[in-house]
Amino acid sequence: MSAIKVSLRNVSKVYGDNPAASLALLRNGAGRDALFASTGSTAALDDVSLDIPDGGICVLMGLSGSGKSTLLRTINGLVAPSAGQVLVDGVDLAGMKQKQLQQVRRGGIGMVFQSFALLAHRNVIDNVCFGLEIAGVKRSERLQRASTALEQVGLHAHAQQFPHQLSGGMRQRVGLARALAVQPSLLLMDEAFSALDPLKRREMQDLLLSLQREQRRTIVFVSHDIEEALHIGDRIAIMHGGRLLQYATPRALLSNPADEHVRAFFQGVDTSRYLQATDLIDHEASATAAASSPATTAQANSPALAHVAAHAPLAELLPRLTDFRAPLAVRDASGATLGLITAASALRILSRSGARI
What we know:
Blueprint: E1 4-15, H1 19-27, H2 32-39, E2 42-53, E3 57-61, H3 68-75, E4 83-88, E5 91-92, H4 98-108, E6 109-112, H5 124-134, H6 139-152, H7 168-181, E7 186-190, H8 198-214, E8 218-223, H9 226-232, E9 235-240, E10 243-248, H10 250-255, H11 260-264, H12 283-292, H13 294-300, E11 307-309, H14 314-323, E12 328-331, E13 337-341, H15 343-353
Parallel strand pairs: 3-8, 3-9, 6-7, 7-8, 11-12
Antiparallel strand pairs: 1-2, 1-4, 4-5, 9-10, 12-13
Helix pairs in contact: 5-6, 5-7, 6-7, 12-13
């Protein structure tokens, strides 16, 4: 099991005159709207718990006002929770003194903003150096680290230019390089690519994934775009009204959305291209069949039974399901059978996910 980099435990954030009283109302079942109507307080976060594995990309998804950006800011201590704990590497941020928290932010946490947040009077390399300068790093070292970061994002040749001379995509690369220069183990990205046109946005997503393959770090990425979340996220946390609705892998969300609100995020998205054979296994039916008939288990493991690889895409599975009346056995790399897929079970799961086929 992967180590946990960030752990949020029952985190709530209330803005208002009496947070304690508001929290009590929330715990007694008052909703966000009812709380505001009775107290004038706003519940930005309501009892959110999740664990973010070390080296993974977690996307915080939700509409405007869902609490995703507030949640991101609790992770670097910019927002203090009204209740609950935020632990980074097992250390509770609330227990840190302000100076300790600043050191953690400057040395272990990088942040990339939607608005680029570049300093107009500084050239590219000096913008990238800025965080290192604040942290007290010597000029020779910060120039070297900034140069390395610019090479990583493909902007080394533009080191002496100024922000106004760059395109939006290039400015966002500078913002990313500035975060990378501090060599963070935790990278926080708040709607980092949303200001870019679709082509540049995809380009930046692919750059981020390429950098992640080279240098595994923990990334928490805020987005309101489900296509972006599916493309880059190892796990996705879907939020609504300050609450966490579901936290799972992209394919788990697609094959088994928790409720209609989660399912609604996938409307208009061709989710079928993300599904694989393992997502279409009818685990309940397979378990029932195995328990009631040992012969079924033997059949599933028979080399003669038609089978598919666990990672086989949906496009490969559908023709085979129509060609064979018998179920398809899903097997892992070692040849072990993980479960069975029938045409009926596949259709049930596809209908739940809203996939277009």
